[in-house]
């Protein structure tokens, strides 16, 4: 008796395949022509992106204090494994050494490392190793450059459109008694740069580690008590006050911006403890405190890694390399440095996990920049893998 072949329904394919990582889907395109057409379809890609892992790991880079050139140190730190396995060759497909500027939905924005004769800006995808080089108007190491890419807001035929925004600070008068921020915007639709007519009066300077893009709106930390906001679609800028002014602290606080559930978050480590704030209204600078714990409780809950934290913070007052620091925040996960080690702190479980030491990433780096990266590299659940194996086995029988 001839055994009847089992054919998976299109509903099952749409249920299973979008849950796989981008890396796995690239391999599955070779299973059959039907799968290749499905996986290459833009509507399928958009569904898959919505279901991918929001946070895979962090990119880390640094440079020496006594060198005037960019230090060639870029590492990718995955967070899924108990013991971190670093990847130092993630961007080796680019034609030159680069420094990472930003990351958004699997795309990375970076620039040529200095010194460089003709520096450019790159937007690349490390999964399929595709990249695009952009001309860089008035290149400068001090430029603050951000990638704006939100595949969920774009229509299907404009799925890969992105923008790159450069913010610059300029003097309002020849005497230099006032400053304003201006914005240059590159659009992949037009392929050209243009200067926005929007400006923002502000005498504070940018912080290098303090940029985040949330739903198309860019936020930059300044060295004052203000956050610069720029809506890249409507070209509107605004200054937002931080939740707590620095005048309230005896010790210099550590802070960073991040994103969770589509909202801007502000992480603060100070003498009062660890705090997490969420922005409710950027026009009124209204923040809600969603999490707080004292330094004493933070130490008790993580006594394996923390010891006399308040005393060590006080002894490092005014230091250019404080004992504890915030590096990056994404999806309620904080990447933080304590001494010479890097940890993850989960705001939901209130627990820390050791990732690595700084010496494992680079020998004595002075400047540290970290960028959260979201891409579905990791394997899915055992149940899902069994479903995929069944589909693969069926199509192998048909092909061979």
From TrEMBL:
Pfam families, alphabetized: b-prop_At3g26010-like (PF24750), F-box (PF00646)
What sequence ranges are listed for the domain F-box protein At3g26010-like beta-propeller?
Answer: 100-296
Q: Which SUPFAM superfamilies match?
A: F-box domain (SSF81383)
Q: Where are the transmembrane segments?
A: none
Q: Report the domain of life of the source organism.
A: Eukaryota
Which residues are in the F-box domain? 10-44
Q: What is this protein called?
A: F-box domain-containing protein
Organism equals Anisodus tanguticus
């Amino acid at each position: 008796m001839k055994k009847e072949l089992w054919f998976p329904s299109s509903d099952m394919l749409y249920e299973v395949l979008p849950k796989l990582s981008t890396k796995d889907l690239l391999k599955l395109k070779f299973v059959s022509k039907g799968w290749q057409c499905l996986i290459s379809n833009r509507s399928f890609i958009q569904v898959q992106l919505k279901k991918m892992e929001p946070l895979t790991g962090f990119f880390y880079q640094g440079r020496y204090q006594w060198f005037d050139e960019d230090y060639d140190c870029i590492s990718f730190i995955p967070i899924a494994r108990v013991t971190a396995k670093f990847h130092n060759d993630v961007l080796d497909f680019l034609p030159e050494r680069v420094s990472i500027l930003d990351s958004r939905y699997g795309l990375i924005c970076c620039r040529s490392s200095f010194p460089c004769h003709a520096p450019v800006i790159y937007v690349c995808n490390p999964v399929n190793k595709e990249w695009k080089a952009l001309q860089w108007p008035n290149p400068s190491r001090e430029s603050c450059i951000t990638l704006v890419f939100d595949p969920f807001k774009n229509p299907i035929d404009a799925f890969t459109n992105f923008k790159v925004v450069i913010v610059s600070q300029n003097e309002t008068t020849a005497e230099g008694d006032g400053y304003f921020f201006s914005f240059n915007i590159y659009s992949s639709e037009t392929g050209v740069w243009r200067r926005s007519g929007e400006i923002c009066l502000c005498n504070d300077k940018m912080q290098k580690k303090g940029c985040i893009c949330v739903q198309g709106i860019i936020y930059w930390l300044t060295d004052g008590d203000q956050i610069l906001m720029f809506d890249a679609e409507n070209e509107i800028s605004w200054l937002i006050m931080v939740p707590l002014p620095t005048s309230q602290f005896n010790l210099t606080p550590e802070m960073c911006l991040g994103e969770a559930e589509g909202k801007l978050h502000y992480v603060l480590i100070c003498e009062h403890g660890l705090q997490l704030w969420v922005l409710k209204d950027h026009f009124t600078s209204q923040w809600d405190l969603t999490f707080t714990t004292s330094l004493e409780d933070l130490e008790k809950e993580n006594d394996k890694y923390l010891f006399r934290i308040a005393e060590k913070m006080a002894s490092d007052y005014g230091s250019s390399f404080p004992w504890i620091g915030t590096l990056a925040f994404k999806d309620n996960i904080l990447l933080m440095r304590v001494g010479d080690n890097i940890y993850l702190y989960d705001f939901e479980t209130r627990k820390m996990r050791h990732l690595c030491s700084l010496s494992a990433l680079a020998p004595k780096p002075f400047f540290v920049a970290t960028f959260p990266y979201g891409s579905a590299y990791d394997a899915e659940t055992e149940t899902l893998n069994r479903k995929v194996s069944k589909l693969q086995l069926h199509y192998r029988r048909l092909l061979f």
